[in-house]
Design brief:
The complex is a heterotrimer of chains A (325), B (160) and C (753).
Chain A lengths: L4 E3 L4 H9 L4 E4 L3 H8 L7 E4 L9 E4 L2 E5 L4 H5 L2 H6 L1 H9 L3 H4 L4 H6 L5 H4 L39 H8 L3 E6 L2 E6 H4 L18 E8 L6 E7 L10 E10 L2 E10 L6 E2 L1 H5 L11 H7 L12 H18 L1
Parallel strand pairs in A: 1-3, 2-3
Antiparallel strand pairs in A: 4-5, 5-8, 6-7, 6-8, 9-10, 10-11, 11-12
Chain B lengths: L4 E8 L2 E8 L4 H8 L18 E4 L2 E4 L12 E3 L12 H8 L9 H14 L5 H7 L10 H17 L1
Parallel strand pairs in B: 1-5
Antiparallel strand pairs in B: 1-2, 3-4, 3-5
Chain C lengths: L19 H6 L14 E7 L5 E7 L1 H4 L4 E5 L8 E3 L2 E2 L4 E2 L5 E7 L2 H10 L1 E6 L6 H5 L18 E5 L2 H6 L3 E9 L11 E6 L4 E4 L5 H12 L6 E4 L14 H13 L3 E4 L2 H7 L5 E10 L5 E13 L5 H8 L1 H5 L6 E9 L13 H19 L3 H8 L34 H12 L14 E13 L6 E7 L5 E5 L8 H13 L6 E4 L17 H28 L8 E2 L3 E3 L5 E3 H8 L2 E7 L9 E13 L4 E12 L6 H20 L31 E5 L22 H13 L10 H11 L1
Helix pairs in contact in C: 11-18, 14-15, 17-18
The chains are: A alpha+beta (325), B alpha+beta (160), C alpha+beta (753).
Amino acid sequence: MKTFTFYKPTELEGASKLLSGVGRGYLLAGGTDLMTEMKQGVIEPELLISASDIKDMSGIVWNDSGITIGSMVTLDEIASDTNIESRIKSLAEAAISIATPQIRNIATLGGNLCQRPRCWYYRNVRFNCLKKGGDKCFAIGGSNKYNAILGGGDSCYIVHPSDSATVLVALKAKVDIFRNFQRVTMPIRDFFIGPEVDVTRENILEPGDILISVQIPKESMGGKNVFLKAKERQSMDFAIASIAAMAKMENGLITEVGIAAGGVAPTPWHLTSTERKLIGYCVDDINVQAISAEAFADAKILGQNGYKLQLAQTYLERALNLVLR
Amino acid sequence: MENNVTQVAFKINGKEHTLDIDNRFTLLDILRDKLNLTGAKKGCDLGECGACTVTLDGKAVNSCQILAVKIASSEIKTIEGLNQGNILHPLQISFIENDGGQCGYCTPGFIMGAYPLFESRRNVSVEEIRLALAGNLCRCNAYGAIIDSVVGAIGIKADG
Amino acid sequence: MVDQNAHPPSVGTSFQRVDLRDKVLGIAKYTADLSLPDMLHARVLRSPHPHANILSIDVQPALNMVGVHDILTPFNVGEGKVAPDVPILDTKVRFVGDEIAVVAAVNVYEADAAIDLIKVSYEVLPFSTNMDTSMKKGNPKIHTQGNVVNGGPIVEARGNVEEGFDQADYIVEDSFTTPGHHPASLEPRAALASWDGTRLTMWKPSRGIHADKAILASALDVNPNNITVIGPVMGGGYGSKDETRTSVLAALLSMRTGRPVKLELSREEEFLAGRRRHSTFTKIKMGVKKDGTVTAVHAKTVMDTGAYLSSGPGVVRRAGQGALYLYRCPNVKYEGQIVYTNTPTAGSYRALGAPQGHFALESLSDQVADKLSIDPLKFRLMNHVGPEGQPGERTTPKNQIIDTQPVEGGIPFSSNELRQCLILGADAIGWERRDQIQTPTGFIKRGIGMSMFIYRGGPGGQSKAKMSLDEDGFFTLNVGFMDVGEGSSTVVLQMAADTLGVLPQMVRLNSGNTDNTPQSPMTAGSTLTFSAGQAAVRAANQLAQIVIEAASEVIGLTDTEGLYITPEGVCSARGDEVNFTDLAKKSGLLKTTVSVTPGSRDYIVNSFGAHFAEIEVDIETGYVKVIKYVAAHDSGTIINPRMAESQVRGGISQMMGFTFLEDMEIDDLSGVTLNASFLEHKSPTIMEYPEIEVIFADSIDPVGPFGAKSLGETPCIAPAPTIANALYHATGVRLNHLPFTPDNVLTALRKLR
């Protein structure tokens, strides 16, 4: 590990200045992912700016419009919050499914949303892949069983590693960002960007930008919501495919719906066309099996990742059956 | 603070320490290399095995994943802080009685992983024990005896 | 002369593991926990290429760094070898991760920075990441002798296998592959070396300190009398820690710098530079008559040993033992071939080849039963090798010890309770309800499967033990073997104490230092309890005699008639008594040294077992859940039931990784190992741990110490075929390729549709 200077600012302004100033600066939240990248030599920060003492980034606040979760709130705090457990079950389910108890005690929501991908070729310093500024995706024609079946375009086939991101897209959450010394709010689905926009990053954050908090609107609560995650190992594993689904019904009609898939694309995959086939329809008229089978029609198989298509379809079918019945 | 060494103070096993440390040092490096507390092991140094588990302000964490400069004024407990001389902690007694370790390299991490559970609850299910220890690898796979050990220790606590 | 009624024996009780207290207190010292004053830290520069010649290395910029003390390269380490095909450092690298240069610096950060400054000029060579490519004619040789070790397979046969197939009504044939998964002991390799100008002291995790000493002496050209090897507590190895390059490099740096040097491998390095299990391809066929009699078995295994040979020859031989000996059959043949590839080295890993061989054999056996429409358990009950052994003529000379992996027939087993294992295991899993548990509808399918195994029973190399009554009235058992975490020191201590007739608390075990322990073989091949146990029993018997003779003098008797040992001392029939402390003071040190060659001239000593599993398969997701697992073992007398049970459960759970999760993933285009981490090489966690019932057959081996046979590795042999057979029962799909990850299961199920 190369040496670095350590800062612990208390204000967003100061942190932002350090991040956009001279030298490669990185914001340190829980650090569980950042430390791994530093130890493996994937990144070499010159400045580490701890977010631990920055105001505005901590705490869970319920209000009339929903809930605001500071980006420094830990995954364990989310998983063990009884209000979240009862009102936004899918978020609690996602949080508890991540990594290990030790990591959940340290890792933050913001860090989970901004963590870097787990693609073997990206994580290994021996490969200068597209994401690291190289000119080649090694997963194409390589070992690609964990790579994307959707959204890779012709470039990068990482899958977005965040389970909380999948859930928050389905819940139509918003993110608050500190940018140019002011607070900007945007839908979380616009926060994530695919390789077609910029292959070297997974979200819109520019140097100096800080993810402050996440808002989940009241409209996404109260109905049924669920997070299903396929993994090879029951602990310490990322999703090989996952589905987050939320639905509300009135008199048999579907009034609110949100669905996203994880582990299949470089971004949390918002299944908008599936949502359109459900919203406003009568539950009894829905053919869950047919809708699930059509949902991933655009999938492109790399060679070893074809099973993900079946997993995603199966989990979508199971998730829809859970939230619509 | 424009340099690569920082002075940090924290409490480890009840004792105050103030150290000038290389910014790159993790909590595990401090424990093993500066304080000779070698009970926490460097099994992977990437937060993927749990052998370095200690508690930080009461919560189980991978000490290899935490930069020491980040946790100034925190309170840390390691396996060496569990027993009081020859008076062993109930978890330690139970791990001996239930043969809860083989090669033993993971054992301090498992005990510290179970410690917050022991402190916070009187009755736990086997499923809760599994979830609490899901971040600790045992390559001897003595998981059955480890579960028995934690069950046994919590039994000791309920009786006491 | 030993009073059997004085106190209950320790053998057969769950005496506490001797070193567990230190382990739970966090004070047990492993190699990486040790440090010495003025110690330097070493780091290794590893090859980025899978196959290349090193033309030159420029270390000057690195050497110019203030904190850097020395750098080893292939050009300055001399001609020594750590293994026949492994020089100390070589001008040729054979896999991504192979050692090129080693830096000694004041700390690891400086050492890492120096590594970055070393410039290596390579001649990059074509390479091979798999056996097919390696075996193609004209492909570049990884070693000068060629890529097929010894130019071809070993061949072992009994009877005439062609004639056997001629007699068959049905011949069933299939192919199987197994992954090169990694033992990944939680403790990475480490070595601490200290050279004082004439003597080398080496601390390293070791399963054979005396063997390590010999290798260090030969590689470094140092007189063995000037080398001390110390084995601190070892954090697991499962066979894999016999690699010695790491320690030789640390030693050489210490000799050159005159300062202690510690070399600790990172987790990634442990995956790359450690030893994995050999991946295999096996083609196997079995001939049977309509009545179910087996007429012939023929297996061919090709094994990938990676860049270096390590223990390959032993492993490939053992992969064939099931095919040669598990089924009663006059005509059998096994061919085993080892191939080099440009991948991390394979070597010893718990049960050495037997899991690979049995996966093929026991999967095929179910297919044969299917062909015959016979219940798989019944087929095995009809055909398993019995106590009388195999048909045929003994060829081993009468006065010679019988090999534990024989080929010839005509020799009975010392004990063989395989049948008991089959019956008890079947009963425990509820085999009789097997036909009723299947669910015709729904996506969850249930199945029950089983398999059986045969394995070496424990006789190993010549074993020595010293035992003494010390001045403080305690006994010391002095042994040269290493407890590698499995608990051998505890069971050997129990046997010695019982033989002597004292409580095990009265006996100290001295081990782990070559200066004051007798020569001993490595802890390998499940031989410790049997072989070191025999030596300990004999030493204790002799010491008992010596102690009684000394007591007769102290008491003032003319002979030893009527004297017996009690937990406190020696008593005579008429009531004279001398306690051990007084005896030791008056008689001086009483001691004995024994050497035994373990084994039998009349019998094959083998261990046996049968495993059963009930599983659920989600056919839409490929996820398999083990509902219940039953392991029935014949390991003779169980010396320490709780530790034995833990050993069996641990072995099974470890092999759930081999069965469901683990493989070393090598990138074919670059030779890079992609998943050299605990996160990506997915070993089972406590969440995967299934309910495991352990049954020990009622068995006392007439040859083994206290009737014991081997147990260390045997739990690892049957899990994969047991699960494969349960999967077939549940789904009607046979999976011949491990591991059974969701993608592999889904792919296989799709082929059926």
